[in-house]
Amino acid sequence: MEATTRHTGAFLETTPKTLFTPEQFDAESRQMAEATERFVREQVAPYVKRLEHGEPAQMREILIDSAMLGLMGIDVPQEFGGLGLPKTTSALITEKTALQPSFAVSHAVHTSVGSLPILLFGDPEQQKHYLPKLTAGELIGAYALTEPEAGSDALSGRTRATLKGDHYFIKGNKIWITNAGFADLFVTFAKVDGERFTAFLVERGPGLLVEREEHKLGLHGSSTCRVVFDEVAVPVRNRLRAEGEGAYVALYTVNIGRFKIGAAALGIAKEAWRIGRDYAAERKQFGHAIIEYPLVWRKLAWGATLMYAVESATYRLAEDLEQAFQAEGTQRQEVWRDAAAHYAAECALLKVAATEALHQIVDDALQIHGGYGFSEEYPIAALYRDTRVNRIYEGTNEINRLNLVERLSHARRKGLWTPLSAIDGTTDTVEETLHALRGLTGRALEALQAHAEPPQLLVEPLADALIALYLLDSAHARARQTANPVHQAMVALYHEHVRRQLAGWSAELAALTGRLPLAVAPKPLAPLYEAVWAATG
Predict the structure, then answer these.
(1) Taking the alpha carbons of 174, 179, 181, 185 in that order, is the dihedral positive or negative?
(2) Nearest alpha carbon to residue 424 among 358, 343, 516
């Protein structure tokens, strides 16, 4: 892929000539994905009922079993006992773990925010001591950031750390801590002397109290608890980086966590879509399988289109991250940290796009079930509950929209991308619509430079236009590359949906762009839905 497309905000300038697509996975990656899926379906799914009825410790045993497949260290280099997979293959494995959401979130916390802070910020001794144990399942990781009064504004936390001799003593409360019921190691954040936000590696021990399991809407098989730190003694050697550098540890790691949530949401969406399609093919009403009725198959056609667009964007970003993470020698940890920070905008974008597509797909799948979808006897009910949290954790989608706009604005100030000047013209072709979207979003982001803070009423339409641009651009580039008629039909349908929203976005952003709203004449959707359904059926 040409080097000019390898930077944050590149999608605002041009469509890549080539990108990584799932069609390019080699046999080894596909075999690993198949093995992971078999593990989830055969060794995780049978325990779901026990997990959901008060046996969260069983999840620890499942995680330990997954370590035997290497699944606990998919992003950790081989020298620390991990697999060191490319980000593309790691995303594919994450898709498969997501087939059982409670396992997926437990696994994801351990492998991302529970381990990556040590990989990205730990000193050599911390890495050698903890990473092999985490990848082997000897230790289970958790991430203790959120507090009762510090959710989205995580840096306002009140947990304190006081240095006395060669130990810090941590006091405070953390909430919504995944894996807390059985975790051994907590990546924890506290303010030294109430001021310097700092990261620590805290082992379970005296003074660390894990309270009862939260009674959650979904993810009943995962452990989520409040954790109380009552003057927990932590050796100085377990501080991650210097005092006051905790924000970097938290935010850089969360960027990768958001990317992983996007990949997981894609995997769950595929499962929900399959469940909806299979039920529609089996259920008969008025003498016909309900999949034959347009109001049903149109939902499936649109779900398949959304999954194609999100999948194209996921693996485009995965390859960009993989290239950014390439490093050798003594400077590689610095390169990894820079890479985790560089694509913050795209990681936030993917998290929003994938989780909102998932919401639509799982909701449609439940609707296809009719009244049975509201029954816990059918798997779609649990999936519906389990997926709702995806738009909340690792930063709510509202926060991620803000983050997307702010990070792209920051990249513009650094000269990392250049906006197009024109936003007028027709939108009859995909290329014309992409050009209009680039002009609209680029001009709006440029105008935001005059604002100390982006006006939130304008952030939503701007973020949504940016998401549509990235997904349409990725889907179009993939279809052009594969020349697959199914892909081309899906691009045509997705393109028309984007066109119809473009007029509204340009009207909302007129205060920033100083241009009249774009006039877009809608085209009939029915033939586009029919083309997708004929191609996928």
Answers:
(1) negative
(2) 516
Active site residues: 394
Distance, in Å, from the CA atom of 452 to the CA atom of 238, rounded to the nearest integer, reads 38
Element (H, E) at 141: strand 141-144
For residue 128, give the nearest of 70, 76, 170 by alpha carbon.
76
pLDDT score of 478: 98
Residue 366 burial by Cβ neighbours in a 10 Å radius (0-12, 13-18, 19+): buried
Reported as a single tens digit per residue, the pLDDT across 406-416 is 999 999 999 99
Give the pair of three-digit tokens for residue 313. 């964007």
Instruction: Please name the helix (run of DSSP H) or strand (run of DSSP E) that holds residue 213, with its range, or none.
Output: strand 208-213
What are the C-alpha distances in Å from 467 to residues 58, 284, 455?
39, 38, 18
> Which residue ranges form the domains of the chain, and what is each CATH number?
3-136 (1.10.540.10), 141-242 (2.40.110.10), 419-537 (1.20.140)
- Give the tokens for residue 248: 């970097």
Contact between 479 and 460 under an 8 Å Cβ cutoff? The reply is: no
CA distance 177 to 158: 16
10 Å CB burial of residue 371 (0-12, 13-18, 19+) is exposed
The three-state secondary structure class of 170 is strand
Question: CA–CA distance from 199 to each of 113, 146, 189, 232, 241 (Å)?
Answer: 12, 13, 5, 14, 7
Q: What is the pLDDT at residue 420?
A: 81
pLDDT tens-place string over residues 283-325: 999 999 999 999 999 999 999 999 999 999 999 999 999 999 9
How remote is the C-alpha of 283 from its chain's centroid?
34
**Closest listed residue to residue 443, CA positions, set 470, 471, 424, 464:** 424
**What are the helix (H) ranges across 370-455?**
379-387, 397-413, 430-447
Q: Do the Cβ atoms of 168 and 162 come closer than 8 Å?
A: yes
Task: Evaluate whether 21 touches 312 at the Cβ level (below 8 Å).
Answer: yes
Token look-up 């989780």 returns 355
Whether the CB-CB separation of 314 and 91 falls below 8 Å is answered with yes
| C-alpha of 366 from chain center | 23
The alpha-carbon radius of gyration of the chain (Å, integer) is 23
Backbone angles phi, psi at 536, to 5 degrees: -80, -30
Return the half-sphere exposure (C-beta side, CA atoms, 13 A cut-off) of residue 116: 26
- DSSP per residue over 173-208, as a string? EEEEEETTTT-SEEEEEEEETTTEEEEEEEES-TTE
Amino acid at 467: I
Type and span of the H or E element at 284? strand 284-285
